[in-house]
Every structure is written in structure tokens, then in C-alpha cells.
Design a protein that fits this description.
The strands form 2 sheets. A 9-stranded mixed sheet has the order 1-2-3-4-5-6-7-8-9. A 4-stranded mixed sheet has the order 10-11-12-13, with helices on one face. The radius of gyration is 24 Å and the shape is globular. Among the domains are: 50 residues, no CATH class; 84 residues, no CATH class. 32% of the residues lie in helices and 13% in strands. The chain starts with a helix and ends with a strand. It is built from 18 helices and 13 strands. With 491 residues, the chain is of the alpha/beta class.
């Protein structure tokens, strides 16, 4: 692996006079430091491995894929080309994979898609970054392509709408759960479809197993949501999601931003998108979209209001030099970018993987904001981690970097309790995997229960869940042990 001169200087023997890297030596105010003896260190000298988060995939990495071997850099960076060549049918995926990986894997993927609650949608960018020599353990494959062989039976408490968003929707496409925040869902499509999506009940088209709720991008229907928001003076914060804000055309970005920023009591807008993780070139080459976003940031600032971009990286493997260039462009144009990850088994569920991701995001000025305990969504049991494992990852991450770049690890409490610090449960039984949370600011009369994946439990816990007649007792015992038996469970 190649390292920059800055990084090489850091691993020189600390008790010797080091030649400063040329970039530093030539800097206006730093040249004189070349004559200074380096003070004795109070820390061990770092290794090259400690600085891997500063390395970004460069070059025409997509050309190792047979289907893309003749694609120029200009073509690959073209968003229209990315969209045109995005795979959204299983037959196309089979054709794409036939020269890349084994027939066994292809058959497994077809079986997995037959049973999946989410549609298939894969950009050339993501397809180029998956390790097709060993796709079974690749963190990007795990996120986007289900396999029949790895499926685990759903926990009996999994649902499609585990957060009960539809229960808190005063009008279609709007969720008002928190006192001062609302979630606006203007569309139901994304640049890629994530297997673990918390809105499997709505995102993408119907599948063989699910007839979905629809959030079509019909601006006339948005007016009901805008009217509701304008009528509620307590709402100050709007998250614009979906679906994915990446899929809004520039005029719609402006329409949504301008209407919401005109409402006097709205102080903050957050455009939410997975896009930078799966199609970062859009920010570089779709200048109309980027300009529309920046214009809304500038308009908000002129009104003393905050407009930011919230994105969704789960693995450092999603990040390349293209990503860094895109994030640099947004940073230079004054756009704040924050990241929300989901803790996923085999993707980022170790301390090493999460620390690497946090450092890499921070290095390119993306603030790690949340790490979510995986929602209890049907069809994703093999992707979830236990609360205990998440707590251990959280312990390892805290302290490795500045506090403002340290994400909060949260459970989005099933049944509509909102986000709770993952360790803030009132009771947690590691045998049955039941954790009990309260959310007094949302509903002081309810309890919110999260259930660990059964495969993560000790043998005693697995046997208890095998007996359906014991399920109510397991739940009631956990509620009683929490000390809040006077409250009722949300689900």
C-alpha cells in the first residue's frame, strides 16, 4: 500500500531529526520546523496500519469488471450512465454475474431475491466495489443482495413497519412523532435498495410477498403535508427523506426547500440520502442537482436557518477517491454532511470495522452522527446484532477520536418510541434477548421492547423461543423485571 509523505513522516523514529515532507517544508509558516529536533514521544510511534483511513481507492477500479472494462472515467462519472446501467431485475443480475462468480452463488442470490421484501437496485459503482471472488462475506453484497442459504427464520416479533410510522402519519407522506420534528416522505424510490430498509412496507415497487404503501412524488399531494407543518407552530425541524432525496429533480429540491424555509417556525431542514455512498459522482457531475442543494443551504443561511445533508455510509468499502472528491466539493461550498449508519452483522459489527469507518468519515469532513441498532424488519434476521454486541462496539469506539465525531449508538424503539441510547434500557435479559426501554417524552405510559436475533442467544434462550406458548411469559417477565409493570408495551 502506498502512503503519503505526511504519513511516512509520522512513522519515522521519533528520537531523530526528521526531514519534513516537501508539502510541509514548502508551506509559508512551516519551513522553519525542518531545523527542529523532534521532542521525545509520550506515545508509541504509529504504524502504517493506524493510518489506513487516509487511503482512498483510486484509478479506474471498475475496469476489473468485464461489463465495464471499456468504460472511460468520463462515462463512469456520468450520473445518467450510472442510472442507465443500474441493475434492477434479477435476470440482469444473473447475466452480469455469469463471468464474475460461481453458479452456486448466482443460484443462491436468485433464491434470496425470491423471498426478499425489498426490490433489487444496484448501481455500477456498487457493483464495481463488491469482491466477487468472495461475495459471501463482502460487506456491500451483504447490504444489497440477499442469499437463500444465509436466511434465518424471522423472530416472531419482526414486522414490516417496526417503528409504527404509519400510526404517526397525520397525512400520507408525513410522520409527526417528536414534539418539534417531522419526517417528510415526498417519494418512494432510491438510487439503490438496501435489504435492511426500515420502510420495506413502502419503498420500491410491490414484491412477490408485499403490496406496498405508496409515496408517489406528486407535488399537489405534498401541499397537505406543507399545510399540516405550517399549522403546527411547535415543529422546527424537518427531515426530507423517502425514498431518497437523491432522486428528486433540482426543481423539486428547490420547491420543497423554499416552501419549508418560508414557514416562520421551521429552523432546520435535513435532506436525507444514501446517494453519496452508492453514487457519489452525482455530486460531481450532476451540477444542477448539487447547485439546487447548495442554493437551499445558502437560502437557509440567509434566513438564519440550517439546511444540511444527512447520508448513510455503513462500510469503509463504500468509500473511494470519488467519494472524497464529492465530499470535498460539498465542504468547500458550505454544506454540512452528517452520517447515519446501521449496525449490520458482517458489515460493521466489530470494533475495528466501525473505528475505521468513523475515522474515514471524519477525515473527509463527514460527521458520524448515529449508529442504529438494526430495526426489527421482516426478512433481515441474519443481518441483526444483539444489543450486547452493539454495546461492546460502542465502548470500543468512544475515545478513539473527538467527541463531535463520535456517533451515538441508538435503538429506534420498536412501536414508535423514537431513538434511545442503546445502553439506556431499563432492563435487558441476555438469555431471552429482550430489552425494555422507556421514552417518556414520546409516551410516558408505554414501554418499548427490542428483541435480539434468536441466533445470537445462548442455547437456553433459543429453546425458550422455540416454544410459542412461552412467548407471552417471556415478555411479561421482562416487563415485570424492568420495574414498570404499570406501563403497557407499545407492540
Amino acid at each position: 500500500m502506498n502512503y503519503s509523505t505526511d504519513e511516512i513522516s509520522l512513522i519515522q523514529e521519533a528520537n531523530k531529526v526528521a526531514d519534513l515532507p516537501p508539502k510541509i517544508a514548502e508551506a509559508k509558516h512551516l519551513g522553519a520546523l525542518a531545523e527542529i529536533d523532534i521532542p521525545d514521544p509520550n506515545k508509541d510511534v504509529v504504524s502504517a496500519d493506524d493510518l489506513q483511513h487516509r487511503q482512498f481507492v483510486t484509478g479506474e477500479f471498475w475496469k476489473k469488471i468485464p461489463a465495464f472494462k471499456n468504460i472511460s472515467t468520463e462515462e463512469f462519472l456520468d450520473t445518467k450512465w450510472q442510472n442507465k446501467n443500474t441493475i434492477h431485475k434479477i435476470a440482469k443480475l444473473e447475466e452480469f454475474l455469469k463471468d464474475l462468480t460461481s453458479q452456486e452463488f448466482i443460484n443462491d442470490a436468485v433464491k434470496g431475491m425470491d423471498e426478499a421484501p425489498m426490490n433489487l437496485r444496484l448501481s455500477p459503482y456498487i457493483l464495481s466495489l463488491i469482491n466477487w471472488d468472495d461475495p459471501y462475506i463482502d460487506p456491500l453484497r451483504i447490504q444489497f443482495i440477499p442469499l437463500g442459504a444465509s436466511r434465518e427464520p424471522d423472530h416472531p416479533k419482526l414486522t414490516l413497519d417496526s417503528l409504527s410510522e404509519q400510526d404517526d402519519s397525520p397525512v400520507p407522506g408525513l410522520v409527526h412523532r417528536y414534539f418539534d420534528k417531522a419526517l417528510f416522505l415526498p417519494l418512494d424510490v432510491c438510487p439503490v435498495y438496501c435489504r435492511f430498509c426500515t420502510r420495506s412496507y413502502a419503498i420500491g415497487s410491490d414484491t412477490d410477498t408485499i403490496d406496498k404503501v405508496s409515496f408517489k412524488p406528486v407535488p399537489d399531494n405534498w401541499n397537505k403535508a406543507f399545510a399540516y407543518i405550517a399549522s403546527r407552530p411547535e415543529i422546527e425541524d424537518i427531515v426530507i427523506s423517502g425514498g431518497d432525496a437523491y432522486m428528486l429533480v433540482p426543481d423539486r429540491i428547490r420547491q420543497i426547500g423554499e416552501v419549508l424555509l418560508d414557514i416562520p417556525h421551521i429552523r432546520r431542514l435535513r435532506f436525507a440520502t444514501k446517494g453519496p455512498a452508492v453514487m457519489p459522482m452525482k455530486i460531481l457531475t450532476d451540477t444542477a442537482w448539487t447547485d439546487a442543494l447548495v442554493d437551499m443551504v445558502d437560502l437557509g443561511r440567509s434566513k438564519s436557518k440550517e439546511v444540511v445533508l444527512h447520508t448513510h455510509f455503513n462500510s469503509a468499502n463504500e468509500i473511494t477517491q470519488i467519494t472524497r472528491d464529492a465530499m470535498d466539493l460539498l465542504f468547500k461550498r458550505g454544506v454540512t454532511v452528517r452520517n447515519q449508519s446501521v449496525l449490520i452483522r458482517g458489515v460493521n459489527d466489530t470494533a475495528e470495522e466501525m473505528i475505521h469507518l468513523v475515522r474515514k468519515l471524519s477525515y473527509m469532513n463527514v460527521q458520524p452522527y448515529y449508529v442504529y441498532q438494526h430495526d426489527m424488519v421482516q426478512g433481515t434476521e441474519e443481518m441483526r446484532t444483539s444489543v450486547a454486541q452493539t454495546e461492546e462496539v460502542e465502548r470500543a469506539v468512544r475515545g478513539v477520536t473527538a467527541g463531535f465525531n463520535t456517533p451515538l449508538f441508538v435503538t429506534d424503539a420498536p412501536g414508535g418510541g423514537g431513538k434511545r441510547d442503546v445502553h439506556s434500557y431499563d432492563y435487558y435479559d441476555r438469555v431471552t434477548g429482550i430489552s425494555v426501554y422507556r421514552s417518556p417524552s414520546v409516551d410516558e405510559n408505554k414501554l418499548y421492547l427490542y428483541f435480539d436475533p434468536i441466533s445470537s442467544l445462548p442455547e437456553k434462550g433459543k429453546k425458550l423461543w422455540e416454544d410459542e406458548s412461552l412467548h407471552d411469559d417471556l415478555i411479561n417477565n421482562a416487563i415485570k423485571a424492568s420495574g414498570f409493570a404499570n406501563l403497557s408495551p407499545a407492540l
